[in-house]
Structures are given as structure tokens and as C-alpha cells.
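Weekly puzzle thread! Below is a chain. First person to post its structure in C-alpha cell form gets bragging rights.
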Amino acid sequence: MHLNLSQQMKMSLQQKLAPHMIQSMEILQLQGLALQERIEQALEDNPLLERESATETDEDGVELQEEFGVNRDEPVETEQKELVVDNDHNNEADFERLLEMAEDWPDDNVITSGRSSNFVSDQTERQNDLMANAEQRPQTLCDSLIEQLGFFDLSPVEKQFAEYLIYNLDEEGRLPTTLAELSQVFPGRIGMVDAERVLRLVQKLDPPGIAARDLRECWLLQIGPDTPHHETLITLLTHHMDDLAHRRWPVIQRKTGYSVDDIKAAIDVLESLNPFPGRTFQSRPVQRVTPDLIVEKNSTGKYEVRLVDEYTPSLRISPRYASMLRNGADAGTREFIKRKLEAAKWLIESIEQRNTTMLRVAQSVVDFQFDFLEYGPEHIAPLKMQQIADVVHVHVTTVSRAVNDKWIQTPRGLYPLKRFFAGGTQTSDGEEVALDIVRIKLKEMIDRENKDEPLSDEDLMKAMAVQGYPLARRTVTKYRKMMNIPSSRQRKAY
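Winning reply:
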């Protein structure tokens, strides 16, 4: 084998993004609250950044803003020096009063190292107030079930296995694994007979239907002797679960001899039961959505977009570091200030560019979707991001970042900005319509159908073609499932 050591020169052309370009793209896709967090973090990390409402300024600071292309006009506070003098005078007076109090204070040997009873009492009162005003943790499903176990006389092993079953329930209150598997991995030793008995005991706890292994058992646990149509429900759930799922009432009538009215009455009782008893203990906080943009109609009838930025602090470069750059700072300090100055400049420019791009993109979208805002969602026009990119003269990925996770408040409600980008299809007349309109038309057709003879997907496809919307059968099925509309067999009324 021949080894050769040599040097070679190679020329190549690569495209790489500068750090400030990466930062601009990241900030562009930030939602309002996320941008506030980013700004607050930057204020902590970069001493040259400060809020625009700061009162300290000087001529060097103004020159520094203009020199680096960041113009922030701030009035000079002329009363600042007088305020400092007054504060110094007050501090001296307070110091003298403290000295006078020290002369009348008891000797050191009287004061113990422990804290006074008044201090401890005040601290205890503050802690009690804090605990009293703290938000109470809601009771969980496991807490409720284990609390109910205390009313039963169980052996230590049975109680431990009951708690083991409770902690293995899912969020819906179901037992997702088989009893045999749980008994095998249970740390203690318990037989299947005792395990079945403990499971039946847990299933007697509130809410009814808890610890069921499937939907059938969950419903059976909620049916008692006083439940209307008790026998009919037990028969249907035990032997005709598949027919119930597909609403085959005539088949059930032929097999059981029950009338259709009795079957429908039993189904009404079944629909009043809770198939997910564990969800009653779920407390999910309501997520508040803050709009990033607001659309308003002006006097000329045009919809205008404005940016919601009153909660986003405005930034400027701190003027106090200008004198440090020009008045003999050492080399290390000057290098640190220049590095932080460049980072601050990039951040301010990135935020301004984000706001400008968002306004331009949103205004173009609103102009394009004028009929949506004027007449309603059924008049939405098909729109692609590339169309907006051509109008705003930016890349389509910039439009995608600008609308990502952004919300816009319109006269017709609060919508995500992506809502206005809808795919389209052509009618039989060659007109381009949004797919949302096609889905609305399909739902209206299903709502108007005769429930005694509901339309199949094939019939819906033909009816939509008559109205000028040629669709494939699989497309009709896909749209129907997207809108959670059951099949024609499940929509049939008996």
C-alpha cells in the first residue's frame, strides 16, 4: 500500500447564513408573548440594551444611537441632579436618626442570637396568609378513589393491590392492561381469584364506571336495577355491541324480538351514561390567545391592519456607554462594549424588520380576503403563500415564518393568520373556489338530506357534481370524516 502526503488547494462556493440573518428569521416567527420573553432575556444579558422609557441620556448617547443607525429621541431630564442631591440629604438625615436610636438601644449582652417573638409572629402570620390565599390543588381521580378505599375492610395485600390498580388507571378512568398482567408485575403476591375480587370492589367506587377494561364493561357498571330499560340494555351490550355501533336496529329487532321503539328508548338511556368517568377530574386551564394583529375598517371602507405591540417593550442602546467608548476606556472594556453594541443593534433591527414584515404580509392577506371579512367564512377565496410572497416581494419561507403561530383579531372573530390560506379547486365552470367552501356546501347537503334515506358518499359525489363541484368519491369521504360526520348507515333514522 502506497502512502502519499501532499497539500492541495481547492476552491469551492458555499452559501451560509450570517448570524444576524439567523437571528432575524428566529425573531420573525416568534409570537408576541415569546417575543416579550426574548426581549426580557436580552435585557438581562446585554447591559447596552435598555427600555426606551429610560430617563437617562446625554449628547454622547444620542450620537451613539445615530452613529449605529438606531435613532431613539429621548428628552433630557434637567431635574435629575436636583433629585440626587435631595436623596443624599435625606440619606444623611436618616443616618443621624439611626445613630440616635443606637444610643438608646439595649446593650449587646441583652440581645440574644435568636429572633424576637414579634418577628417570628409576623413571619408566621405572613406564611399563614400566603397559604390561605394560595390556589387549592384540585382533587385528582386517584386521591378520590384512595380516600374511598378507607371505608372498606381490606387486608394489607388487598389494599396495596387496590391502590396499585388505581394508580394504573388512565386519564379516562379505564384499566388499559389486563388483570393477569397487572397481577404478575404486582410487587406483592396475589392470586387471580383475589385480584378479581379486588377489581370488582374498586369498580364499585365513584364515579360509576371506573376501572372498566373496555367500553362495554364501563356501561354495564353504570346500569343498575333502577335504570330504565334495564334488561334491554344488558341484552344489547352483552350480545349486540357490534350491531349497536353500526346502528343496525332491524337486525337487533329480528334477533331479540324487541320493537324498534324499545331499542331506541334503550339507546337514549345509553347515551345519557358517561363513557369516560375519569374525565370529570381533569382540570385543564383555559389557554388565552392574545392577538398579534388587529383588523379595523376605516372611513373609506378598507380594512387596515395594525400591530399589537403595547405589551412589547421598545429598546434602545444605553447612552451611558458612549462616554466609556470615547473617554479613555481600556482595550478590554472597549472590545466588550463593541461586541455587545453589535448584538444590541442586530436585535433592535430584527424586531423592527419583524414588525414591518408582519404588517406587510397581513395587510396583503386582508386585502386578498376582503369578501371573507365583509360577508363571512363561506366567501373565503383560495390563497397560497406564494401569492402573498409575490406581492410583498419576499421569499415564500418568509411568509410562512411571518404567519406562523400569529393570531389576528377581525370584525368576524379571532383567527390564526394561517386560516386565510386555503387550498382551492376548480368548478365545472372553471372558477377557482376554496376547499372550505366545498366542505360547507357538503355539510349543508347532508343537513338537508332525508334521514330516513340518507345519502351515501356516492350519492353525495353525484349531487355535488350537479351543483358544479366535481369531486372524487374518496374526496367526499375524506371531507366527511374531517367534519366528524358519520356514514350514511349511522345517520339513518328508524
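Puzzle host: Confirmed. Bonus trivia for everyone else. Residues 72 and 122 are 47 Å apart (CA to CA).
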